[in-house]
Design goal:
23% strand, 5-stranded antiparallel β-sheet, 40% helix, 6-stranded mixed β-sheet, globular, Aminoglycoside 3'-phosphotransferase, Chain: A, domain 2, Nuclear Transport Factor 2, Chain: A, 16 strands, Phosphorylase Kinase, domain 1, alpha+beta
Length: 447
């Protein structure tokens, strides 16, 4: 049955027509689309089928098709070559299908930057065997292109082509090739024992960078399945050691500033990237709408005032605590373990600021269970950093990440992620609301 459903969808993606799909959509299904720069919700099978050709787009030759099982259904990635105005160009879409009794109950559609051919990788990349390059599966939500390859020894690696001008995240954070610069300037080799970057080489190429990394897919996957408490202790210990080791050092000139880090998830990103194929800026707009709608009004008012003008928050952060190297994107999908080492990928948002910022970001993105887990992690962090309870810097870090959009991400994920997929519990949302309110109460007026 699943094979027939997927075959019908594949035909529809190629023809751009929904004829023959009615039997595969539940009468009370919903289509949510972010494919044209707007968030659109279409309820009911008849309305979905009418909207389908517009959402999917014109007919096109299917050049990429992949299906993977997901909780409650499937994730389908398509790329088609369509002709518009006499010009051929690729269109890539991500589809999440939630199936009930053999029919689609929820269909989420989003656009993404098109995959690019392995020919993009030049043959003189440091040690990579020519002809061994293949596409590496990834979400495609930024301008980086990833490819699988092998060194002459047979060691599997990932080749990352970074072109800052084509990556919305790089533009938003004013990144000129941060991951490559941190390698060439020796920052990764200066990391403390127990924390490693998998980057093996980095070299400038055209207007961007070519970065060769160890393929640590297995370590990233196994870390997701490991015991959360043990993983959290290893990660936080490694982060605290890094912060201590870089404390007081001069900031690397290529690091993201705290002000730019706030702008990455600004409500304006949706408008600044209106014509982009990247989907994430559109989701940012939806996230802030959900935050304004669902957050405690006192919290949302205080946070949004700082979104409009974060200068007082940034000034106080700079005054209250010394700064150090921050990973900037310290969350479970970017972290693995090999032996006694924590492996950290994606240093593209590496920042210079108080170490508590890394911790609060990690807590927002990992502790989605009960209150005891979050309380225990906060207590663990205070002990690792020898900080007192009620530390004002930790409160400032909580407010900072609320202003950066993390509370909105939490609320949106809890409210809109379909059943069966990992999402924060109601208890987690309530805990963060209390935690942000407490931080504002203790810090006083920051606006």
């Amino acid at each position: 049955m699943a094979e027939i459903l997927l075959a019908a969808l594949r035909k529809g993606f190629t023809t751009g027509r929904s004829s023959g799909l009615r039997r595969w959509y539940h009468p009370e299904c919903t289509l949510e689309s972010f494919a044209d720069g707007r968030a659109e919700v279409v309820p009911g099978a008849s309305a979905v089928l009418a909207a389908w050709p517009r959402v999917i787009g014109p007919p096109g030759r299917l050049t990429w098709w992949s299906v993977s099982a997901a909780p409650g259904g499937y994730e389908v990635v398509t790329q088609r070559e369509i002709v518009k105005g006499g010009t051929r160009f690729p269109v890539r879409q991500l589809h999440q299908l939630h199936v009930e009794s053999g029919r689609i109950r929820l269909h989420l559609v989003s656009s993404a930057a098109p995959h690019e051919p392995p020919a993009l990788v030049p043959h003189d990349v440091a040690g990579v065997v020519p002809g061994s390059v293949a596409e590496f599966g990834h979400d495609g939500l930024s301008g980086a292109a990833l490819f699988s390859a092998r060194l002459p020894s047979g060691r599997p690696v990932v080749v990352k082509i970074v072109r800052p001008g084509r990556d919305w995240l790089a533009v938003a954070s004013r990144d000129a090739g941060r991951e490559g610069l941190l390698f060439t300037d020796g920052v990764y080799t200066a990391l403390p024992a127990g924390l490693r970057s998998p980057v093996l080489s980095a070299q400038r190429h055209d207007s961007g960078w070519i970065i060769v990394m160890d393929d640590i897919s297995a370590e990233l996957d196994s870390a997701q399945r490991a015991g959360r408490q043990r993983m959290a202790r290893d990660i936080l210990t490694a982060a605290a050691d890094m912060h201590a080791g870089f404390l007081g050092r001069q900031a690397h000139p290529g690091l993201c500033t705290l002000a730019d880090r706030l702008r990455v998830f600004s409500p304006l990103q949706r408008l600044l990237n209106w014509r982009s194929s990247d989907n994430f800026p559109t989701l940012i707009g939806r996230m802030w709408e959900t935050f304004a709608e669902r957050a405690d009004p006192k919290v949302s008012d205080a946070v949004l005032r700082l979104v409009a003008d974060p200068s007082a928050l940034l000034t106080r952060l700079g005054r209250e605590a010394p700064s150090t190297l921050l990973h900037g994107d310290l969350r479970p999908p970017n972290l693995g373990v090999r032996g006694c080492d924590v492996l950290a990928i994606d240093w593209g948002l590496a920042t210079y600021g108080p170490g508590d910022l890394d911790f609060v970001y990690f807590l927002c993105n990992s502790a989605w269970g009960d209150d005891e887990e979050r309380d225990a992690l906060e207590e663990m962090w205070l002990k690792l950093t020898d900080s007192p309870p009620g530390n004002p810097v930790l409160d400032l870090a909580v407010v900072y990440h609320a202003v950066a959009g993390e509370l909105g991400v939490l609320l949106t994920t809890a409210a809109h992620r379909p059943e069966g997929l990992p999402r924060p519990s109601d208890a987690a949302v309530a805990w963060w609301m209390r935690r942000v309110r407490t931080a504002f109460d203790r810090l006083g007026d920051l606006a």
